[in-house]
Write a structure and sequence with these properties.
Length: 424
């Protein structure tokens, strides 16, 4: 009897996801716990493992919203894997009566007539390759054929090749998952150019909701300071090769800022707290969120108990979480529970910005680009590598005096890194 592959539970706040990719196709052999599909939630992308070894039958199409516990595929332990050619020409097995009516349409042999570049464009824009005229050797469809097809389709008033013209204006296609979406051309006048409309991803929706909620539910203010990075840069330059050779990971600035933040958070504990109704929740630990930019949007993986970690452990964990975030392999648990966040817009060249608090946290530290600037030191004007830092904080919890003192303490620790080693 076939074994069901269901959408796994992914946290209390997650009830649904979008199936964005099949790792295995209908008729392919799969092993126990082998990833067969990828789901996108409003926090991260998650792989769904096979619950048995056997032959897979897909039950849900890419772009479908699925609920926790819903069956998305079955695995037949007694099934016989088909070859790719057989799979593309034969009809897929019918789903059981209890399964959702979402059987996947079989692939066609057209894939064999597509160049790799053309196939990628067809998949990205969800095009029907059977309507594209081939000009390549052996009647293969080239990238130029796909481009020409899209240009013809996108002309104002043009109908899709192979279809009969309509007397009425064509209704724009329904939004589907980005990457599967067709370009929707909707010129409003003869002078307008083409526009594209695609559905907002769940992650982007969640980012938008969180940012709006933060602005509406917190009394946010931002205080600024500047840090002379000379001593820190000198230490990093002196020891970075030895550090990498010994620990197998590079020595970045983020580990110093993480250490300095932990020390300052111990002294100003409200900056590491949160609000729960009429109560203040003080955390006797630091779960540090590190903002990571990805193609799908901003994510904030969390370093657990960062106050107990060494520089090497912090750097290793930052590298692991950043890689997992960009690859979409981050676990849901690694995106929750943060008590304080650091974001570094300096990697993109930002000179100064006001970061937005990530609720239920009450503060966030913003790092920025290091720029050489003239500064006054002991009555002399000298050029030093300087960084602006910003602390956005919820004024309901943190007074202006506390926010300024926190940032001044951080400045002291970074400008004199020996304080971090001596805890002074």
């Amino acid at each position: 009897m076939p074994t069901n592959v269901q959408v796994p539970g992914m946290g209390e706040s997650i009830n649904e996801a979008v199936l964005v990719k099949w790792h295995k196709q209908t008729g392919e052999a799969v092993g126990l716990d082998e990833p067969v599909a990828e789901l996108e939630t409003d926090k991260a992308n998650v792989d769904v493992p096979s619950t048995a070894a056997g032959v897979l039958t897909q039950r849900v199409t890419v772009g479908t919203k699925v609920k926790i516990g819903e069956v998305i595929a079955t695995v037949d332990a007694n099934g016989q894997a088909t070859t790719k050619a057989q799979t593309t020409t034969s009809a897929p097995p019918k789903p059981e009566a209890s399964a959702p009516d979402r059987a996947v349409a079989p692939e066609t042999s057209r894939d064999e007539k597509l160049s790799s570049a053309a196939k990628r464009m067809v998949e990205e824009h969800n095009l029907d390759a059977t309507k594209i005229s081939p000009t390549g050797p052996g009647n293969r469809i080239t990238k130029e054929d796909v481009v020409n097809f899209m240009d013809d389709t996108n002309k104002p008033g043009a109908s899709a090749p192979g279809s009969s013209p309509s007397k009425t204006q064509t209704k724009p296609a329904t939004d589907v998952y980005p990457g599967q979406a067709k370009a929707i051309i909707a010129p409003t006048s003869t002078t307008d150019g083409p526009v594209r409309k695609v559905a907002m991803s769940k992650i982007r929706k969640k980012i938008a909701e969180t940012l709006v909620k933060s602005q509406q539910s917190t009394a946010t203010l931002t205080t600024f300071n500047e840090i002379d990075m000379s001593n820190l840069m000198a230490i990093r330059t002196k020891f970075k090769e030895q550090f990498e050779k010994k620990h197998g990971v590079g020595l970045g600035f983020m580990s110093f800022f993480a250490k300095a933040a932990c020390q300052a958070l111990r002294e100003w504990e409200r900056v590491n707290a949160s609000i729960d109704g009429d109560d203040i929740v003080y955390h006797d630990y630091v779960h540090l969120g590190i903002a990571v930019s990805t193609d799908r949007g901003l994510a904030v993986p969390v370093l657990r108990n960062v106050h107990t970690l060494s520089f090497a452990q912090i750097e290793s964990e930052i590298k692991r979480l950043a890689t997992a975030t960009r690859d979409g392999k981050l676990q849901i648990s690694e995106l929750s529970g943060g008590t304080f966040t650091i974001t570094n817009g300096g990697v993109f060249g930002s000179l100064m910005a006001t970061p937005i608090i990530n609720p239920p946290q009450v503060a966030i530290l913003g790092m920025h680009a290091i720029k050489e600037r003239p500064v006054a030191i002991n009555g002399q004007v000298v050029v030093r590598p300087m960084m602006y830092v910003a602390l956005s904080y919820d004024h309901r919890m943190i007074d202006g005096k506390e926010s300024v003192q926190f940032l001044v303490r951080l400045k002291e620790l970074i400008e004199d890194p020996q304080r971090l080693m001596l805890d002074v």
